[in-house]
Structures are given as structure tokens and as C-alpha cells.
Specification:
This protein is α+β, with helices and mostly antiparallel strands and about 350 residues long. The protein contains 12 helices and 11 strands. The strands form 2 sheets. Strands 1, 2, 3, 4, 5 and 6 form a 6-stranded antiparallel sheet that branches. Strands 7-8-9-11-10 form a 5-stranded mixed sheet. Helix 9 runs antiparallel to helix 11. The structure holds adenosine-5'-triphosphate and magnesium ion.
């Protein structure tokens, strides 16, 4: 029938890969775009499991998520708020956006229609995210500079005047309250300086990621939330953009662990091999339903983390199980692939 053929042609011409998947995760139909997007011939994919197209490290979790979706099938973006990746036949990975839609054919079992869009083709997406993150960093630097150059200097002046007056014994009051006032001023100065460091981690530039993280952990631990760190020294292996992205991801993960997990400690691990640096932040607190949080749109912390990871060519993974805790994992390539190719 002409209409059917026309429809098939339109489907094959779409910029998105379309997959029709049954409840067991088996691909039952696909358009031609899957071939150029995933490197698998369309016919090779039919009757195979869709988990094959998911990055290797997420396959087990993906199978669980498919089962969850089958219990509550709704037309919705997959893992909304998270940055997703697909895996090509050659093992390479690329950022994707996936829309899911349940479909009940007249006869037969329920299906899910998946539309996959390759985001790496959309420079606009990357540069917009980059511009947003750069604007946030610039604003933080500006606030830190103002706090430091203006407020801290004023506080130092107040402390100086206070000390002079106290020494001159021209201020009334008992010694204890004067001592208290003096240490309150010192505390205020220390707090503002700590906020400044959080806004722009200067140590990162001067001493590298490992030390900047250790300082961050010490501050958390001193404030009553213990952070244990098992960190390799990455030295200067990462450029500043990558180091800053990893620092911000750890900073936000720890802030979430302290604010939301109910646990009183977290573990941060940083490892590296020839090509990747991997950082993991883990708590054993209350955990949460990732799908529910993603669709509620609450908070920008998790979203910001996955965006930052994507911008530096990293892989971001969030795993949280109610009652068991939360784990954030990000892997960043050490060598810049584009530059490495240019040098050949
Ligand atoms: N480690 C964690 N343990 C338990 N729940 C968490 C954890 N991390 C995140 N969450 C849940 O996920 C939600 C979203 O986190 P997200 O960081 O995106 O936003 P937020 O922390 O609420 O706000 P903000 O925009 O200030 O970061 C949290 O409100 C919380 O319910
Ligand atoms: Mg947060």
C-alpha cells in the first residue's frame, strides 16, 4: 500500500532513531536511522535486546528501569534531567535524548516506542550549556571578589579598631564579653573567607584538584559532616576546565549528601587509569527515587552535575536506592580526543 511505503520512507528519513521495543526489551522494529546512529545494521538489531545500545556500565540498571517503566508506562522523556548516552557497535558513546511512548497494538503485547536523538550533532546544545556554566562561574568570581575585597577588609578594620580600643581600656565591659566579641569577629572573617573559597576554589588553580578536594573535605569534616577521601594524585593531568567541573560535581554531591541523605558521612574516591579519571561520591543515607525527582524538576544541583560532566566529554551516572543511599560517579577522559587526533 502506497501510504504504508510513504510512511516507512518518512520514518527512515527522520533525524531520530526510532525503536519499537516489547516488554522484555526486545527490539521488534526500527527505522534506518539506527544504522548511521549506532553503527548496527537495522536488520541486525531486530530481535536483539535494546540494552545493547545502552553504555556498557549502565546495562544492568537499564534493565531494572525498563521493568519499572513497564509497570507505569507514560509518554515521557527517559531519565529526564539526566544526561544520557548511547553506545555504538564499536563501543564509543555519545550523548542522547530519548523520548518514550507506550503503544498498544490492536493485537498483541504492549510495546514502547523510543525516539533517540544524537545530541553530539547539536553544537548549539553544547555551547549553550557551556555559556551558562561560564556565566555562573564568572558571577561567583565577582561575588567572591566583592566579599573578599570589600566585606572582609571592613571586618579586618573593625577587628583592628576593636583591638586598639580594648588595649586602650576605653571600652566598658567585662573581659569575657570583650573576648567573645573579638572571637565573633574572627569567626565572621573566617566564615566569609570560607564562602569565598567555595565560590572560587583558588586552590584548584594553584595546587590542582587533589589538594583542593582535600581542603573541601576538611571543611566539611570540621563542620560536623565527615568526608573520607581516597584520592589518587591527578597532579596536572586534567586541564582547569575538567578539574573545575569535577570539583563542582563533588561539591554539589557532598552538599546533597549533607542536606538530604540523613547520613553523617560520605566517601569520595578518585581513581585514574591510562585514559580516564573517575570520581565517586557515596553516602549510605536515605536514598531517593531518581525518576520521581527528575520529573518533579526540583533543584538544579543534579541537572548541573550531569551538564558539567557532558561538557568536558565525561560520563555521569547517578544511582540511588531508597533506604540504601546514593552514589554519583563521573568519568572524564584525560586526553582531549579532538586534540589528540589533530596531532597525528
Ligand atoms: N544524596 C542524596 N540523598 C538523598 N536525597 C538526595 C540526595 N541527592 C539528591 N537528593 C534528592 O534529589 C533532590 C534534587 O537534588 P538537587 O541537588 O537537584 O536539588 P536540591 O539539592 O534540592 O536543590 P539545589 O538546587 O539547591 O541543589 C533533592 O531535593 C533530594 O530530594
Ligand atoms: Mg542540591
Amino acid at each position: 500500500m502506497l501510504a504504508d511505503r510513504l510512511l516507512r520512507e518518512v520514518l527512515d528519513t527522520l533525524p531520530d532513531a526510532i525503536l519499537v521495543v516489547d516488554e522484555g526489551g526486545v527490539i521488534r522494529e526500527a527505522n534506518e536511522r539506527v544504522t548511521s546512529m549506532f553503527g548496527w545494521d537495522r536488520r541486525e538489531l531486530i530481535e536483539r535486546n535494546v540494552d545493547l545500545l545502552v553504555p556498557f556500565q549502565h546495562r544492568a540498571r537499564h534493565a531494572e528501569l525498563r521493568a519499572e517503566y513497564a509497570r507505569r508506562p507514560l509518554a515521557r522523556p527517559m531519565g529526564s534531567g539526566m544526561l544520557l548516552h548511547g553506545e555504538r557497535k564499536d563501543g564509543s558513546q555519545f550523548p542522547v535524548e530519548i523520548a518514550l511512548s507506550p503503544w498498544q497494538p490492536d493485537a498483541g503485547e504492549p510495546m514502547v516506542v523510543c525516539a533517540v536523538r544524537d545530541l553530539s550533532l547539536f553544537d548549539r546544545w553544547r555551547s549553550m550549556s557551556m555559556a551558562r556554566v561560564e556565566a555562573v562561574e564568572a558571577e561567583r568570581t565577582r561575588i567572591a571578589a566583592e566579599l573578599h575585597d570589600d566585606i572582609v577588609q571592613q571586618m579586618v578594620f573593625i577587628k583592628h579598631r576593636f583591638t586598639t580600643l580594648r588595649n586602650a581600656e576605653s571600652v566598658f565591659g567585662d573581659d569575657d564579653s570583650l573576648l567573645e566579641l573579638g572571637s565573633a569577629i574572627d569567626h565572621t572573617i573566617a566564615s566569609i573567607e570560607r564562602i569565598c573559597r567555595g565560590l572560587t576554589p583558588l586552590e584548584l588553580k594553584h595546587f590542582g584538584l587533589t589538594l583542593a578536594l582535600k581542603i573541601l573535605f576538611r571543611e566539611y569534616s570540621e563542620a560536623g559532616f565527615k568526608v573520607r577521601g581516597k584520592l589518587v594524585d591527578v597532579g596536572r593531568d586534567l586541564d582547569l576546565a575538567k578539574a573545575l567541573a569535577l570539583f563542582r560535581i563533588v561539591q554539589e554531591s557532598l552538599s546533597n549528601a549533607r542536606e538530604h541523605s540523613g547520613a553523617d558521612e560520605a566517601l569520595v574516591t578518585m581513581t585514574r587509569d591510562a585514559d580516564w579519571v573517575q570520581v565517586e561520591v557515596k553516602d549510605t543515607g536515605v536514598g531517593f527515587e531518581t525518576a520521581a525527582v527528575a520529573s518533579s524538576g526540583s533543584g538544579i544541583g543534579l541537572l548541573g552535575m550531569s551538564e558539567r560532566a557532558a561538557m568536558i566529554g565525561g560520563l555521569f551516572e547517578l544511582r540511588s536506592t531508597p533506604g540504601e543511599g546514593t552514589r554519583i560517579r563521573v568519568r572524564v577522559p584525560v586526553a582531549e580526543p579532538a586534540r589528540a587526533e589533530e596531532e597525528l
